[in-house]
Amino acid sequence: MQSLDSGAVLRFTLLFGAAIISTVLFVRSREPDTVPARPQLSLAYYLDSAELVGTDENGEQLYRVWTDRAAQVTSDDSISMDTVRMVYTPDGPQAWNLSADKGRIPADASVIELNGNVIVKSGASNDAATTIKTTKLDVDPATQEARTPEPVIVDYNGNVVNSIGLYADFKNNRLKLLSDVTGKFTP
Q1: Band of residue 33 on the pLDDT scale cut at 50, 70, 90
Q2: What span, in angstroms and rounded, lies between the C-alpha atoms of 119 and 101?
Q3: What's the CA gap between 168 and 150, in Å, rounded?
Q4: CB 161 within 8 A of CB 177
Q5: What whole-number distance in Å separates Cα of residue 17 and Cα of residue 32?
Q6: Second label for 86, Cα 20 to 30 Å away, from 14, 49, 135, 159?
Q7: How far apart are the C-alpha atoms of 46 and 15, rounded to whole Å?
Q8: Hey, what's the torsion of the CAs at 3, 8, 10, 16, to 10 degrees?
Q9: Are 126 and 158 in contact (CB under 8 A)?
Q10: Residue 19, pLDDT above cutoff 60
Q11: pLDDT at residue 76, as a whole number
């Protein structure tokens, strides 16, 4: 039987170690640095021709919202709406009718955000009706108030007033124009 000298064992160990290191480096160089992320799908709920009803703490109806399409994405629990119609205090004598191209209700339901061609009409008789037009309106369902910092056109019985910004109190039937108010009144 032949014996190996210590130099041969050392050479064999170094050669074997170099083979292992070169194999590991070769395999690592072939792996991509970044693994492409798989697309994430978020769960969502959709309703076509939906009706939402808001009530006060006593269960009395405050408003109704109709929309052609409502979607709730579970990632933030907000509700987005397309082609929105809304009636505030629909059973009362001071009902207000609102419409917009789009709407959004955040998860806490603290506000109903209306966007795009927002039109608000008072439920008063035709000769005393008020129409408000703007591009954005935030409605607070709890207080029955609405606000916008955007340009506003108010038409009251043929008299037109322009303003930047508006505060509306639907419960008490009051409007407040905030700035740059101009208008034309005919007696």
Answers
A1: low
A2: 10
A3: 13
A4: yes
A5: 25
A6: 159
A7: 65
A8: -110
A9: no
A10: yes
A11: 82
The token pair that represents 40 in the structure block: 């994430």
Residue 176 has a CB neighbour count (10 Å cut-off) of 11
Burial of 63 (0-12, 13-18, 19+ CB in 10 A): buried
Model confidence, pTM: 0.71
Q: Is the pLDDT of residue 4 over 60?
A: no
Partners of 30 in beta bridges = none
Which of these ranges, 4-8, 18-22, 46-50, has the smallest mean pLDDT? 4-8
Of residues 35 and 134, which shows the higher confidence score?
134
Per-residue pLDDT tens over the stretch 63-122: 888 999 988 877 788 889 999 999 877 555 678 899 999 999 888 888 999 999 999 998
Tokens of 51: 């009706």
Report phi then psi at 185, rounded to 5: -115, 135
Q: Give the containing element (helix H, strand E) for 8.
A: helix 6-30
Q: How far apart are CA 79 and CA 73, in angstroms?
A: 7
